[in-house]
Amino acid sequence: MGSLFDWSSTASSNTTVDGINVNTGMPVSNVDNAIRSLMALIRQSFSATLQNFLSGASALGISSGGTGSTTAADARTALGLGSVATESTVPVAKGGTGATTAAAALDAIGALGIVAFSLGSPGYIKFNLPGTTDTFMIAWGVATVGQDSSLTVTYPVAFTSFSIPAVSAMNKVNASANENTGYISGTATTSGFQIYNSENNTYAIPWIAVGV
């Protein structure tokens, strides 16, 4: 049996199919025989690799738009995505970073990204620092401090190494400097700091802190 790749790209030059005469004036039975032979030639001419692909596609249900799987786990496996526990891991060969977490993926491409946050009051936003295990964080809130007293502010999430807080100072008009209120008393720690209010009234004092 020949091959369909032996045929000419010029239609009029093709006069036989696997030795069967298909010229004008041929017997009608030659049409039936030529079609049967043509089907066999096409099937034979496809490479084993393509045949395997088509067989695999049929097994996966690709022809009907699915994967042929009965469970989500089977579907992920059929599509090469792995299990739920590992489907976030996309190797470099597949266009990914090989990372298993968002933080690791950001680190792999040297990008700064948000790894945790809470947008309430108090709140915070934590960023990864590429190439390190550290994070940069911004925290904020409002502290209500009574007159002539101090209040310990506790961050919503502790910093890892250090914090640098700042407060919104409140000035009393025509008052002496020692009556200004809303300033940090003592040294800030990774977990918080103190705000002192030397005024004779209670104030709600906004604060913000940055650090690693």
Strand content: 25-35%
Please state the overall shape, judged from the principal axes of the Cα atoms: rod-shaped
Identify the strand order in the major beta sheet: 3-4-5-10-7
Determine Rg (CA atoms, Å).
Answer: 37 Å
Given helix and strand content, the structural type is alpha+beta
Which CATH architecture of the domain at 116-211 is right? Sandwich
Number of strands: 10
Task: Detail the poorly predicted runs.
Answer: none
CATH topology of the domain at 116-211: Immunoglobulin-like
Main beta sheet: 5 strands, antiparallel
CATH class annotation of the domain at 116-211:
Mainly Beta
Kindly list the characteristics that best describe this protein.
single chain, 212 residues, alpha+beta, Immunoglobulin-like, five-stranded antiparallel sheet, three-stranded antiparallel sheet
Describe this structure in words.
This protein is an alpha+beta fold and 212 residues long. Among the domains are: 4-45, no CATH class; 116-211, Immunoglobulin-like (Sandwich). The chain is 21% helix and 27% strand. The strands form three sheets. A five-stranded antiparallel beta sheet has the order 3-4-5-10-7. Strands 6-9-8 form a three-stranded antiparallel beta sheet, with no helix packed on it. It has a two-stranded antiparallel ribbon with strand order 1-2.
